[in-house]
Amino acid sequence: MRFTKMNGAGNDFIILDAIKQKIPPEQLPHMAKVLCDRRRSIGADGLMAVAPSEKADCRMLFFNSDGSMGEMCGNGARCICRFACENGYAGPTQTIETTAGLVTGVRISKREYRIRLNTPSVVRLDEVLTADGGTYSVSYVELGDPGIPHAVVEMPGLADADERALFALGRKLRYHPAFPKGANVNFYEITGQDAVLEKTYERGVEDFTLACGTGTGSVVTVLTLKGLVSGKNVAVSMAGGTLVIDAETESGRVTNLYLTGLTNLVAEGEILDEEL
Hey, how many other C-beta atoms are within 10 angstroms of the C-beta on 211? Predict the structure, then answer.
């Protein structure tokens, strides 16, 4: 079985072409758990299968490293757009079917892709939650329908925050009763005009990742609606690099949300993992 390894701002994925290769969909959760193991297999934040679609150039099936299915992944979608473009499934503009809805992409250069993220379907600003012995003002965003759940938490001094304490808080909020589906937890600090630092604890990975595309979109959605950023070319810095978000608003709602960043083709090869 052939595979491709890619990453977007350090958010890394194993990609399987289920159009050319006959891969039973029911096996994908188990394959994700085995192949994403960084010690015993290839290792990645998630596994994506590129499948046929009747409504788009192709369909993206996304699985977290724990085998759970995700609604969508922003950095993953950018990688799929490049994969589709370079493998003849799409041209310089791409349409990708995801569980959360249709995603459109544009090739800017060989490595840089811009996608329209799923529109926020749920936005709740500044809810007061208690976790880990403290009280926090938390905003909640779902992108798409069914929505990808994100908690957005301001964290002054984020760059120097204690990693263990932040991990513990992220895990508490990820399972907070206020979020029935669980949530990705995005800590942020505004560092300048239209400049944000972000760290995301991702459900399904159950750890911090080097970047989270839908997380950056959710953070900028909240900050734009609160008037704290302009919503234009907002640079969000994460451990894996910088992503750019554009949020267009109308009548107090975000109507279009765009994510731009580099992709990186890491490896192509054959899976020989005997655990499968």
Answer: 28
Rounded to an integer, the average pLDDT of 200-212 is: 94
Q: What is the pLDDT of residues 100-159, one digit of tens each?
A: 889 999 999 999 999 999 999 999 999 999 987 889 999 999 998 888 999 999 999 999
What is the average per-residue pLDDT within 217-242? 97
Q: Please provide the DSSP assignment of 68-87 as one string.
A: PEES--HHHHHHHHHHHHHT
Q: In whole angstroms, how far apart are CA 265 and each of 10, 83, 166, 272?
A: 11, 9, 31, 20
Q: What is the pLDDT of residue 232?
A: 97
Burial class (CB in 10 A: 0-12, 13-18, 19+), 39: exposed
Structure-block tokens of residue 136: 């926090």
CA proximity to 125, closest of 243, 250, 232, 224? 224
Please state, in angstroms and rounded to a whole number, the distance separating the CA atoms of residues 203 and 54: 30
Let me know if 36 is a catalytic residue.
no
CA separation for the pair 71, 196 (Å, rounded): 25
Q: Which residues contact 219 (CB under 8 A, 6 or more apart)?
A: 150, 152, 186, 188, 196, 198, 236, 245
Would you call 260 helix, strand, or coil by DSSP? strand
73 is catalytic: yes
pLDDT at position 19:
96
62-74, pLDDT tens digit by residue? 999 999 998 899 9
* Active-site entry in 36, 58, 73, 79: 73
CA dihedral (74, 243, 197, 186) in degrees, to 10, reads 0
Q: 194, 234 in Cβ contact below 8 A?
A: yes
Does the reported pTM lie above 0.90? yes
